[in-house]
Write a structure and sequence with these properties.
Two copies of one chain form a homodimer.
Chain A: E1 2-5, H1 13-26, E2 31-34, H2 41-50, E3 52-55, E4 66-69, H3 76-84, E5 88-91, H4 95-109, E6 113-117, H5 123-129, E7 137-139, E8 153-158, H6 164-177, E9 180-184, H7 189-204, E10 207-211, H8 217-228, E11 233-236, H9 244-247, E12 252-257, H10 263-275
Parallel strand pairs in A: 1-12, 2-3, 2-4, 4-5, 6-7, 6-8, 8-9, 10-11, 10-12
Chain lengths: 279, 279
């Protein structure tokens, strides 16, 4: 059995920066993070052990406490509250998410109705929507467009981890219902590259293991990309979940990992496959 | 044999305005028109008889001469030359074309590379391109997009008579190759309505006659819309061209006409069909 690792897999630039800065900050004393820093429970566990405490609400923090804004960003009112509370803010919003927030804010000022292509309840989408004003709306699929009451001037940004196919499908629908459409393709390169690499991997493999948090949107999307190629695909968080029967008889096992999946987990998956006969 | 006339056919608002104003101006003395006022040789003949002379170049005109700018508009340098020459300008640029010109000019000022979706050599497209600056480019089909060297910020307008399908196909391709895309759907309602009515007509008819100038882009497009519905379609300029064998055995003959086709030609086509047994 051959084991293939996708060309592009694992931590992206924004996540790497967030993790490194968080560990560094924690080495100087306790820090708080609003929501898990990344959507990977195992790595969040390591961060907790290092002194990064995940909190749900900033109200119980004291002036001078250090607060991490995670890579998904937060709506502007949360930032204001944190500042008013006198917290030391460590802003680790991914620069690509910041860009989407800025485009949303500018388009709102230019009187566009802002559409954010992405999952309504994902923290990144909620953070971008925070900059989009009262008329801003999140759209998950092309079908939803017909239900919307749209202004004639529509401005579009994307959750950075969207698939291009869904994004362009929604833009095409919006084009039909608007007179003026301004579109920023804010899907980040890492996302596009990882999805493309996953597609290539799935074509070459008999079965695919996609490694990453079950709450990770981009990891989940990698799994659907592989399934679209018609290959049996398993989304796992850790090596222990691999069932030997998944890979029995497989000539080639493909492995890929989301942008929030740390290397040490990917390595342990590769080790486990080696134990099961992979090379 | 039944004869069906399309719900929306013939002169659009912009053409009607241009024709009426031209006849009115000619009643007060000779007027010149830069290029044929509309793409309909028969109506242009009537205009000539009334005193509207079609010219190719303004250089032989004298100060004080009256110059009609036709509904397709002209690039701004032509307007400037006409003003410098002291001509009396009667600007009959269709308001929808003016809108496309203005959007092109503003986007050029905002540093977008302007793409005009339309036929490269059509006077309307050339008039809009005149406002789009040196980087402006006309694109006729989605396939051409890959050949273009595009900036990351692209602004799009459409020839007012484009089909929505071609327009959206080109926008979709541009979306793939740009980071920021601003799109004004400047296809005019008359165009969309006439194409939709032609489609409905073709579905109900056994054979379709599309009446209008052979040099008329929008008439030619009505004919392709009808052909796409799988019905035998004949593009004619005048009633005399109808060949009886086209309609032999047809239960229903559909008739439609371009936005530059005058009523009197449509009526003569209907009269001729009546002579041939239509009702």
């Amino acid at each position: 059995m051959k084991v293939l690792l996708a060309d592009k897999a694992g931590f992206c630039f924004g996540v790497k920066r967030a993790i490194n800065t968080a560990f560094e900050a924690a080495s100087r004393g306790r820090v708080y993070c609003l929501g898990p820093l990344i959507h990977n429970p195992q790595e969040v566990g390591r961060l907790r052990d290092a002194g990064v405490e995940t909190i749900d609400d900033i109200d119980r923090l004291q002036p001078g406490d250090s607060l991490i804004i995670r890579s998904h960003g937060v709506p502007p009112d949360v930032l204001v509250r944190a500042q008013e509370r006198g917290l030391k803010i460590i802003d680790l919003t991914c620069p690509f998410v910041s860009k989407a927030q800025k485009h949303a804010e500018l388009m709102k000022q230019e009187q566009y109705q802002v559409v954010v292509v992405g999952e309504k309840h994902h923290p990144e989408v909620r953070s971008i929507l925070g900059y989009a004003g009262d008329e801003g709306v999140a759209v998950e699929s092309p079908d939803e467009v017909e239900e919307l009451k749209l202004k004639s001037r529509v401005g579009v940004v994307a959750q950075t981890t969207q698939s291009y196919g869904n994004f362009s499908g929604i833009v095409l629908k919006l084009l039909r219902f608007s007179k003026e459409l301004k579109v920023f393709n804010t899907i980040c390169n890492s996302t596009a590259e990882r999805q493309e690499a996953a597609r290539t991997l799935a074509r070459a493999a008999d079965v695919v293991l996609v490694v990453g948090g079950r709450n990770s949107a981009n990891t989940t999307r990698l799994a659907s990309v592989c399934r679209q190629e018609g290959k049996p695909t398993h989304h796992i968080e850790v090596a222990d979940e691999i069932r030997p029967e998944w890979i029995t008889g497989a000539g080639t096992v493909g492995v890929t990992a989301g942008a929030s999946t740390p290397d040490w987990i990917v390595r342990s998956v590769l080790d486990r496959l080696r134990e099961l006969g992979g090379g």
